[in-house]
Write a structure and sequence with these properties.
Length: 574
């Protein structure tokens, strides 16, 4: 009977759960950084790549990865029925821990190809990655294959502790090939080839995804010790925890500062990518380097992520909505090379020996070549058979509707702004501005409209910023308004919106989100309604809103048949 360790087993189970939890993080990052019309499709893809990946890895992948056939190919073991040495943990615990790693590699590709890939095509290439591509190259490094025994000079063995190459770079290179063959989203580049930013619909969800991934990385890296029962393992795990976190923190900080200098403001989405870049970069060497080296690796990765996103977007003209290629591909490559540069044993900068660096360079070059060739073949076969990309109509309408029959991932959800300071968003107080009498224009739409105070009916239509609604509603209620119609709207004034930066690209915002409030009044003087609205909305800044006044010819209450002013009385709602 095998001599299993309960502590090692529990440790690996905990690690597997945390790595599985990263699937939720990837789903949230991808959904948040893309448009709402595709959110359901993205959730479905991230769900199914884990499902299909788990099944494929069970049927064939584990045997290819850990079989002992030869140094290039582990072997075929259908439904994983063979005998394997899994050390101090039970076989199926070892199997599940490696299953969640396999699924992670496949899900990276989803983000770079989001919003225009056929769902069936995604399932096919995700299955191929989990069943063949990932297990084969992972065998070379983690399964006793040729890279694990590669010797150059005084150093033997390519080192990738938790997957900068095996998981992240493989996913990033696959994403790069797939996004290139797939082509950019409609409207991503103008007629001159200049990149247009397509902002994600929910940065809050994207940030939640990053926090989930950061938490999951504390299983991804430390649990790759495969045990915690000895003093040596405990010291190693402690070092891994520290290096993982400090690299991520340094990358986040440097990305924030770098974008602040480069764009004039700290870029939120790019800083979130910076956190992930630091985590990816330290994953290969988290056990081999000291904290000071992890801080350096993280800081450099925080700059690499910005430059890589811009290079891929603007120079290569490859549309990657979430930055997957830059995060996982570029920083997976960088982190793997850093093992040879910063490792306490054999590192170029720590010992002066270049042998370990050369081993790392050979390893990443071999994996890049293998993945680039095989995934190009896979994507081209899919493209010329079942097709890789959805139609233009499907892309414009959204994959939720036409790929899944889902009207909206946010059905019956109407974001309503919360109450707050009535002058929120204004850089100075209203007292420092021009008079509110001219700050909010009022347009009378009917010359025949009765004068203020007449018993005849008027409709007052108010267009305002979304964050001003609660204050406006209270002001209208204070002057006696009991009923109103409120709708979300998009629009712009004579300034035609504004320009801003998103992930280093210009965003021309010609239609801005607004709230349109309509009230019909008779007994309440129109002048009072206008005054209340101007008081609630005024800041003196461009975009405070507009007020339109219309004369109403007739109004009929459907329930009672009352008409005119009488139809506006009572408790009926619009």
């Amino acid at each position: 009977m095998a001599n299993f360790s309960a502590l090692d087993t529990i440790w690996l189970i905990l690690g597997a759960v945390l790595v599985y939890w990263m699937q939720a993080g990837f789903a949230m990052v991808e959904a948040g950084f893309t448009r709402a019309k595709n959110a359901g499709n993205i959730i479905m893809k991230n769900l199914m790549d884990f499902v299909l990946g788990s099944i494929a890895y069970w049927i064939i992948g584990y045997g290819i990865m850990f079989g002992g056939l030869n140094a290039v190919f582990g072997g075929i073991d259908i439904f994983t029925r063979g005998s394997y040495d899994t050390g101090s943990v039970p076989f199926w615990v070892h199997f599940m821990f490696n299953t969640v790693f396999c699924a992670t590699s496949a899900t990276i590709v989803s983000g770079a190809m989001a919003e225009r890939t056929k769902f069936i095509s995604y399932l096919v290439y995700s299955l191929v990655i989990s069943a063949l591509i990932y297990p084969l190259e992972a065998h070379w490094i983690w399964g006793g294959g040729w890279l694990s025994t590669l010797t150059i000079g005084s150093w033997t063995g390519f080192h990738d502790y938790a997957g900068s190459t095996v998981v992240h770079m493989v996913g990033g290179i696959s994403a790069l090939i797939g996004a290139k063959i797939l082509g950019p989203r409609i409207g991503k580049y103008d007629e001159n080839g200049k990149a247009r930013a397509i902002p994600g619909h929910n940065l809050t969800i994207g940030a939640l995804g990053v926090f989930i991934l950061w938490m999951g990385w504390f299983g991804f890296n430390p649990a790759s010790s495969y045990g915690l029962s000895t003093y040596e393992q405990g010291c190693e795990v402690g070092n891994v925890f520290m290096t993982t976190n400090i690299a991520a923190c340094m990358a986040t900080l440097v990305t924030m500062i770098f974008t602040w200098i480069k764009y004039g403001k700290p870029d939120v989405s790019m800083t979130l990518n910076g956190s992930l870049a630091g985590l990816v970069a330290i994953t290969a060497g988290c056990a081999a380097v000291d904290p000071w080296a992890a801080a350096v690796i993280g800081a450099i990765s925080g700059i690499i992520i910005v430059l890589a996103v811009e290079f891929i977007d603007n120079k290569l003209k490859i549309d990657d909505p979430v930055g997957a290629v830059a995060v996982h591909g570029a920083n997976g490559l960088f982190g793997s090379i850093c093992v040879g540069l910063f490792a306490r044993d054999g590192g170029l900068f720590t010992t002066g020996s270049i042998d370990r660096t050369l081993v790392q360079l050979v390893g990443v070059a071999a994996v890049i070549a293998f993945v680039a060739v095989t995934m190009t073949i896979v994507f081209l076969i899919i493209k010329h058979t079942i097709g890789l990309r959805v139609t233009a109509e499907e892309e414009i309408v959204g994959l939720d509707a036409l790929e899944h029959g889902l009207a909206s991932s946010y059905a019956d959800f109407m974001p309503m702004p919360g109450a707050g300071n009535l002058f929120a968003g204004s850089t100075t107080s209203p007292s420092e501005k021009v008079s509110s009498d001219i700050a909010v224009p009022v347009q009378v739409m009917s010359e025949a409209a009765p004068v203020v105070g007449d018993i005849k009916m008027h409709k007052v239509e108010i267009i305002c910023k979304m964050d001003k609604f609660e204050g406006l509603k209270k002001s209208l209620e204070d002057v006696g308004i009991t009923g109103m119609t409120v709708v979300n709207a998009m629009g712009c004034g004579v300034q035609k919106g504004h320009f801003k930066k998103y992930r280093g690209a210009d965003v021309e915002v010609t239609l801005l989100p607004k709230i349109k409030v309509e009230v019909v009044v008779a007994k309440v003087p129109v002048a009072d309604v206008i005054a209340a609205a101007k008081k609630a909305l005024y800041t003196g800044n461009i975009g405070d809103g507009k007020i339109f006044v219309y004369g109403i010819d007739e109004c009929v209450k459907v329930r009672t048949g009352e008409s005119g002013v009488l139809a506006l009385q009572g408790d009926d709602q619009f």
